[in-house]
Recover the amino acids of this structure.
């Protein structure tokens, strides 16, 4: 028997508050409850990217990324990159009750692969922009 520790329960509660997963995975296994605006057509990878990018945590990460780029702050860029890594980890690895598999089986959930590639490209681009010399050759 697999035991779920109090830390995993807290993570699930936080994710439920953020709206990334439903509070009760068994209850939200249907597409009508997990994706209320779903029209019945299978969700493509691009639609899944748009769904994930429109969540509050990702929008906050995009704003933090813009601030880090504007300030050219290596420390802030490092913090934002770690936060992006945490978001990708949550999307890729946290699947309470097999919710993602149920959504994909019913056709209203897509693969998060493009979202992971987008987050990786954002982090790599941010790091390359930050480490680039600010002035020209002297």
């Amino acid at each position: 028997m697999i035991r779920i520790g109090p830390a995993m329960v807290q993570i699930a509660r936080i994710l439920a508050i953020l709206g990334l997963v439903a509070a009760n995975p068994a209850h939200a296994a249907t597409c009508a409850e997990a994706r209320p605006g779903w029209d019945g057509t299978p969700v493509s990878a691009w639609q899944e990217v748009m769904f994930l990018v429109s969540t509050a945590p990702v929008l906050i990460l995009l704003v933090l990324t813009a601030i880090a780029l504007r300030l050219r702050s290596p420390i802030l860029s490092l913090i934002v990159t770690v936060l992006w890594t945490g978001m990708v980890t949550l999307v890729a690895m946290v699947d309470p009750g097999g919710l993602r598999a149920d959504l994909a089986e019913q056709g209203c959930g897509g693969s998060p692969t493009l979202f992971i590639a987008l987050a990786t490209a954002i982090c790599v681009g941010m790091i390359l922009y930050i480490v680039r010399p600010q002035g020209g050759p002297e």
About this structure: Residues 74-93 form the longest helix (20 residues).
